[in-house]
């Protein structure tokens, strides 16, 4: 499952990029000279921390070491991108050789700063055609300007998780496919209680866990950057349409202040006290992990899943969604890159390894072969997210030199829109474009 991470200040993020760019030196991609058959120990850092997740990593590493008896892997978990960047800057024997990160937004940073080695030469030397191994969208978010400095390691697909029991009680026979029907259903499922709610059809505000502007923008097919590389928020009408539609939904479900007051009573996103688990919200924009987590929390209702609705004028696109995931790369400063590649290749391209890991932590597989594997455990609820991952029009947020700063800038604008602080959305998007272009120019 993903770990949501925000940069607290754009200036700090850009400064970190600059420092990282000057600190990452070592073997260039494709020039590694170590013998992958020699005895060696690799340092592998990852971000997982839950017992079931770390156990799954250990099992994968054990299988790898059995197949590669000359390579031992020292594993360090619960590593954030900030800790990874600090270690890469410091270098030395304790620095990671191989890294896995939850934050696809960091790909542009890792590639642009040359912190991670370009994996294209390793793929070619191994005879691997990446376009035949990985879905197109996943390749988009794991490279930057032709530098494939990371590869996908499992995949997150976002859709709609809903309370089927609440649907039946309200006389709703199927999940909404279009935005207008989505609004109707959300209203029908909402049960106000004074200045709060007994049940809310959906928490629509952008502070609501996985209900992010990027998730909804994907349903409008919005394109973040133009052919000239400039920010395209004002140029693509999908962004303004999405923000207008979301603001209208906020108003129809009680207004921003009332909704936020209710949201502030919610439990932690990763706990049994999640409002969906408790029946406080009937629909949830979420990832493939939520049905399993809800079942583990012992919910008393039947769980359903579906793709997110699409705009009414894009009804033919129904079934698509927003994709993200975990990434894996090799530190440019590592002196063990050929051995490191053996580990990366195994964990990201070996079908058995990918399927076993996906089964263990309830994530969507990241290779085309693993998506079709008969060994993949697929419940009806999970199949929805497999289908979203396969959909040719599912989208993502592209890598940029400023990491995820451009997304945070857009998100901050979206917060202002839903609060009612923006009178002219197109003009505000144009101003946001200018800020994004300035930040990216500084990052480069």
The gist of it:
It is built from 19 helices and 9 strands. It has 444 residues and is an alpha/beta fold.
What share of residues are in beta strands? Answer: 5-15%
**Tally of helical segments:** 19
What form results from the Cα inertia axes? globular
Parts with pLDDT < 50 across at least 5 consecutive residues: 1-19, 21-26
Q: What does the radius of gyration come to?
A: 22 Å
Distance between the termini: 31 Å
**How can the largest sheet be summarized?**
9 strands, mixed
Total beta strand runs: 9
Question: Structural class, from secondary structure content?
Answer: alpha/beta
SSE pattern: HEHEHEHHHHEHHEEHHHEHEEHHHHHH
Give the % helix.
Answer: 40-55%
Q: Averaging pLDDT over every residue, what do you get?
A: 91
Which characteristics define this entry?
19 helices, nine-stranded mixed beta sheet, alpha/beta, 444 residues, 43% helix
Folded structure, characterized:
The chain is an alpha/beta fold and 444 residues long. Helices cover 43% and strands 13% of the residues. The chain is built from 19 helices and 9 strands. Helix 1 runs parallel beside helix 3 (81-90), helix 2 (51-67) runs antiparallel to helix 15 and helix 18 (405-419) packs antiparallel against helix 19. Residues 1-19 and 21-26 have low confidence and may be disordered.
Task: Describe how the helices and strands are arranged.
Elements: H1 10-23, E1 40-45, H2 51-67, E2 71-76, H3 81-90, E3 98-101, H4 107-112, H5 120-125, H6 130-133, H7 136-141, E4 151-163, H8 164-169, H9 179-188, E5 191-193, E6 196-202, H10 213-219, H11 237-252, H12 256-263, E7 281-287, H13 289-296, E8 303-306, E9 322-330, H14 337-349, H15 351-361, H16 368-371, H17 380-390, H18 405-419, H19 425-443
Parallel strand pairs: 1-2, 1-3, 6-7
Antiparallel strand pairs: 3-9, 4-7, 4-8, 4-9, 5-6
Helix pairs in contact: 1-3, 2-15, 11-18, 18-19
């Amino acid at each position: 499952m993903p770990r949501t991470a925000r940069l607290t200040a754009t200036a700090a993020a850009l400064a970190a990029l600059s420092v990282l760019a000057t600190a990452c030196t070592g073997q260039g991609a494709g020039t590694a000279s170590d013998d992958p058959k020699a005895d060696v120990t690799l340092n592998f850092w990852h971000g997982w921390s839950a017992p079931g997740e770390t156990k799954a990593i250990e099992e994968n590493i054990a299988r790898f070491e059995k197949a590669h008896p000359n390579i031992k892997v020292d594993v360090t978990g619960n590593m954030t991108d900030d800790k990874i960047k600090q270690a890469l800057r410091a270098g030395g024997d304790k620095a990671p050789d191989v890294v896995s990160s939850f934050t696809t937004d960091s790909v542009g940073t890792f590639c642009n700063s040359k912190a991670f080695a370009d994996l294209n030469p390793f793929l070619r030397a191994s005879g691997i055609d990446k376009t035949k191994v990985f879905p197109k969208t996943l390749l988009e978010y794991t490279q930057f300007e032709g530098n494939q400095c990371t590869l996908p390691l499992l995949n997150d697909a976002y859709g709609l998780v809903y309370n089927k029991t609440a649907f039946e009680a309200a006389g709703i026979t199927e999940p909404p496919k279009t935005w207008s029907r989505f609004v109707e259903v959300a209203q029908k499922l909402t049960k106000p209680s004074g200045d709060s709610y007994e049940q809310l059809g959906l928490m629509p505000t952008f502070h609501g866990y996985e209900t992010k502007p990027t998730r909804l923008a994907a349903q409008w097919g919005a394109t973040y950057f133009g052919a000239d590389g400039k920010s395209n928020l004002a140029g693509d009408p999908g962004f303004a349409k999405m923000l207008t539609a979301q603001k209208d939904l906020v108003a129809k479900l009680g207004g921003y202040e009332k909704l936020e007051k209710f949201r502030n009573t919610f439990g932690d996103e990763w706990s049994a006290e999640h409002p969906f688990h408790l029946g406080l919200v009937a629909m949830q924009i979420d990832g493939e992990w939520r049905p399993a987590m809800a079942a583990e929390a012992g919910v008393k209702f039947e769980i359903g899943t579906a793709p997110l609705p699409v705009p009414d004028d894009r009804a033919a696109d129904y079934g698509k969604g927003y994709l993200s995931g975990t990434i894996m790369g090799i530190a440019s400063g590592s002196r063990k890159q050929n051995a490191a590649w053996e580990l990366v290749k195994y964990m990201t391209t070996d079908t058995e390894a990918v399927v076993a890991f996906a089964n263990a932590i309830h994530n969507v597989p990241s290779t085309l072969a693993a998506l079709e594997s008969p060994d993949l455990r697929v419940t009806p609820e999970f199949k929805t997210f497999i289908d979203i991952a396969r959909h040719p029009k599912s989208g993502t947020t592209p890598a940029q030199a400023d990491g995820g700063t451009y997304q945070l800038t857009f998100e901050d604008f979206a917060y202002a829109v839903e609060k009612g602080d923006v009178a002219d959305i197109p003009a505000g998007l144009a101003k946001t474009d200018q800020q994004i272009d300035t930040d990216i120019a500084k990052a480069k």
